[in-house]
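Quick one - first record:
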Amino acid sequence: MDDSQEKIKKKSIQIAEKFRQTIRSEQMDFWLLLSIILLVGMGTMMVFSASSAAAYRLSTSSSAYTILTKQILFAVGGTIIMLIIANWGDYKLLSRFSIPLYVVSIILLILVLLIGSVYNNAKRWLNIGVEFQPSEVFKIALIFFLAYVFSRPGLAFKAQRLMGLVIYFVPAVLGLLLIAAQPHMSCVVICLFVLGVMMIMGKVRMPTYIALIILAGLFVLGLILITKYFPNVFDSDKFSLTYIVDRIKLFFDKESSGEVDNYQIEQSLYAIGSGGLFGRGFGQGVQKYMYLPEPYNDFIFSILAEELGFVGVTIVICLFALFIFRGYKIAVNAPDRLGSLLATGITSLIAIQVIMNLAVVSKSMPVTGISLPLFSYGGTSLVILMAAMGVLLNISKQSHYNKF
């Protein structure tokens, strides 16, 4: 009788544990989802405050809600897409579209150079009924492409060695060159960092790194020689790559306060410095009134610091830290190599953009056009990133670890 009771007890424990594991594996990561919702919510709130003056000036109806309305539509649409992807079957099915997605992103980048719209001497936008930046599509396509390659044993074996230069570096470099031609060098830098992270996760061998460094060095040398002997190639009336060198010089030149880029960063520092502990109060900022360029996009963090102070800044940084921590935890506990690579790539993309944006607005690196992910105004970036968040949540549903 005692043996039968012991067997029943053990069987009950096994059933209960299996039930807990089933529930745990079918639920999204709560803390990741919470951080996403709070970041998008606070971002939408700050977009309204930072854009109200510009919207009133630019709107034909003199409305301060024009930009806010668009951002809410993007946020709601992105959230719906995120939830659909998070609950749609298995993320492994999405890997089948890795190659087609990458090919489509390359085609879109080519179309940008052919028929793209020009703003601020840059050809980064494509209008096909809806205006968007194909470079944002390429970031996610690159992650899916590399995750697909490194998760396939046959491809991974070759990609880890010198053959990888042909298998995946050549397609990746093609996309980076097309983006550099726009020019959009900040996106190139972000993609290079993501490429580096994915290479480390893919266990690429040292000879491949050395070969890549040599090729990169030759490429940079070629650009220098072309710039020196054929200056008109990169210094035309419409597009110029010489602005990169100019911005680096301005970053180290303390006497060039009259320059446009330095004016922008000076106004950013004024906004951050005037915030104090609790800030001026939501909606009470001054720099957004035509003092600080791009107050609701690249420099929205400066407006946040001015209006919500050190407390608001700390909350936002902690939310991003929570997101990054949970993202990498999902990568560690992913059920397979594909999920681990996808989670690492998506989380690293957000982490790199956050670090670079905060470095720019605080004058820790030269000014470059990098938005704050899930926070800044922008339909393309927000919707695509929310779709990527859906993939991350989908991976978390199939991972076995404590999500609460």
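second record:
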Amino acid sequence: MPNIPILYEDNHLLVVIKAAGIPAQADDSGDPDMLSLLKEYVRINEGKKGQAFLGLVHRLDRPVSGLMVFAKTSKAASRLSDQIRRRYLRRDYIALCHGKPDSENGVFIDYLTKKPQEGKVRATGADDGVRAELSYKLLWRDAEQDRSLLYIRLDTGRRHQIRAQLALRDLPILGDYRYSAMTAADQELASPALHAAGLGLDHPTKKEKIYFFSSPLYNDSFSSVSGEIMQEVLIAARKNGLLPGEESSYTQIIKTWRC
């Protein structure tokens, strides 16, 4: 069981990095999940005698790594949930995929099935599905291996959304066992090369805008992108306004919960 890095914590919020392969909440597998593990962390850290309150306000697919925010109070849970309903919560992802998009930036809009069919979310008509929208920017291209590093911002949050929408355009994420053809390169990876890298929100009580960032290199599935290239890519993304500057973002791990 990997340790859980914590980027931010106060009386209302807990922002952590989820490792690939850990469920966001309890599921049929019975495996340790983020919500249960962090409830125990809060209970121990704050010396609570009974079970600690911790609100799950958004989810992240089990195979996907990256930032998650949890609410430590009911007030925070309500206000964060409202930000999600209003599509105010900012969610930035970085993906390493096969192929190259038709243009360097754009918007993908599809209607997807509400529930997976044989483990996959599929495209369907507007009357039968839910609207899925994201915008993307090509960050870096590996022509030799025919791979692209994409910055993605979600407008909607649907199950498997990024994985399904990229696959629909012949841009399957490297290592995605559900949506890629599982080439030899895919089979070498334990999880998809998809990382929830950025998270922006209004603090539920301070009314301050805060932004968190976690490098995709936290996920081993990005190992084919060198640290030097990734650093250059992220610096360029900040210069181009895709990401807030480091000085205005929470990027440092303040502690680690040893599960």
